[in-house]
User: Fold this.
Amino acid sequence: MVSESPFHDAKLYKRHLRGWLSYNFASEVFAIASLTLFMPICLEQFARDNGYLMPDRTEPCFLSTNETDGLSIAKATAPCVVKLGWVWVDTASFSLYVKSIGVALQALVVISMGGIADHPPHRKKILLICAYAGAIATLLFLILPSTSPFWLLCVPLAVLANIGFGASIVAMNAYLPTLAQESEEVVLAKSELDKHAESQPARSAVQDTDRTSDADEAEDPLLPRESANSDPDERLATLNATYNATLSRMTSRISSLGIALGYLSGISLLLLALIPVTKLGGSTFSLRLAISMSGIWWAIFTLPAAVWLPGVSSKASTPEWGDESTQRVRDGEEWSTGREILNAWKRLGGMLRWREMKKLKNTFQYLAAWFLLSDGFTTVISTAVLFGKIVLHMSPSALILVSILAPTSGILGSLIMPALQKRFAWSNIRVLVTLIVFASLIPVYGCIGFLPFFQHNLKFGGLTTQGEMYGLAVVFGFTYGAFSGYSRAFYADLIPPGEESRWYGLFSITDKTSSFVGPMVIGIIADLTGNIRYGFFFVVVMILAAIPILLVIDADRGRRDAREYVYRMTGLVADLSEGDNKSVILFDFHGKANQRWVAKQGCDNYWTLQNEANGTFLSVEGDVVDDAVLVGTKTGMKWVLQQDAMNPGYYRIIDPMTVLYVALSSKEEDPEPGTNLALEKYAIEPQQRWKFEEIL
Assistant:
């Protein structure tokens, strides 16, 4: 049993965790029941109820049996097409095209809301607004019969529901890194790490030396490669590794628990929806009713999240919600939604610059793999139901059973894989690659269905019978359940703290961009070939292509780079004031000469820092004492550059004579431009950690 930590508010943490899990329970029902099963079938049936049989395109595809119930009895098994404007579209492709439109618009919304959702008081608002917008859109399906002349309103309703779900999930995922950081195990590991770091004296040798610069000092690379100044502390490194491992494990555990609860909610609703769908013979009305039931469930179980998730009132009482070294929270009176939307698009462009991508190389490598994986998995999900309905001629009740088996198996996958990982000490990368290999076997199995041996001789295998669909649902569910938890948790380790919504937004954009491509390609394949089975070849390529990318990711380096990351266009840097050409202050980055410093190491291994604008050195005017303000002087002080053991990408700048550290004079979490630099005694706070960046 882990002892209670004085820094951990267990009651408050459990409240936040329950709020987050409750939204998993509320929202995943839409993904499992509506988005995966009922929505594709319902949209296809809306189109079929208004379509005509090929090749003449004069005979309706369905007979009307009840005007309020919609059209439900097929007249023939010939291909069915519907006319949209002047274009005839296959009814299966219609469903895929609607989904493509939805995910494309969802990406636009997610980009725009990234900066707003990173502002803690607005994150909860964004989640609730998007959740209820999506829930209401699903409810409105109940009052839109397929016989209505306005049946095409199903398109904006489906798109709005898709947008609401996707945008709310981005806001929900943004809570995940902080939930892991505030778990009791992680808090205790961090506390032990901090205590040990605070107890460590400066390791640099203090030598009697003149404070003026030596004439024979030579210019070296910006940072020391190896010297007595940066001797590593093995105990500190061990504690740091323990903290990282604990954080990764808790992130995966929380994520997997959310996936399991989400699947449980989806299964529960599918069992409820099975009653009306079976009783009404799988009519269009029964499908609309099932979609509306998911909207009711979504709306009701979002209420606990609205109560328990942290919002405006929690900010002052729970400063843990946001990393103190990176959080960029503006005061309420300065907030502007329009400006944040504009800045979100500017920031996206900046994040995708090559310079920024190099800083987070492993993060972007994972996003590249995620693009392929999400496309493969999403395409399997979105086309499986249509494949079962159109190719295998499965009834709606049979498809519901398939959709129940998959998430049921997914619960097992999301709970069993973390246990196996712990038992065999597998890395997250190894778990993901294993799951991907298993997932790729499913579309491969579908591809062999083209072989005449399976179609004519054996009449079984290659996904040519309905019974095989049930078995593959179990395999895919187990794999996808585990994959969903690990993909989200692994990404949490690779994103900069304090910018969770923005980076999970990019994660979602990558997902939705590929999800837009996959169904669109499958739709085109179905239109050109008349056989949706050909899409399996596309899926196999997309899934397997991700494995080489995943294998070159350095998770430890990626985690470190993310914690050290400072977005250059908005970062504050050491600046020689242009006002008096003397004061050294913190200021917004603009790249001029007064923000560039030349680091030179002398033969005594000490360093000087000279400003490029006027040649003055970082120094103190007067006595070198605690709280002395730093300025630019003609004669430079000598400094020790000590690599920070907790964050190796940062350095501490130390005066070797007094063992005082260069720090910000302000202790605010979000220092304002114009803050002076000063000398201080050692402190663990990030105000004493500096990042050196080479200017090319």
Observations:
- The radius of gyration is 29 Å.
- The CA atoms of residues 97 and 632 lie 63 Å apart.
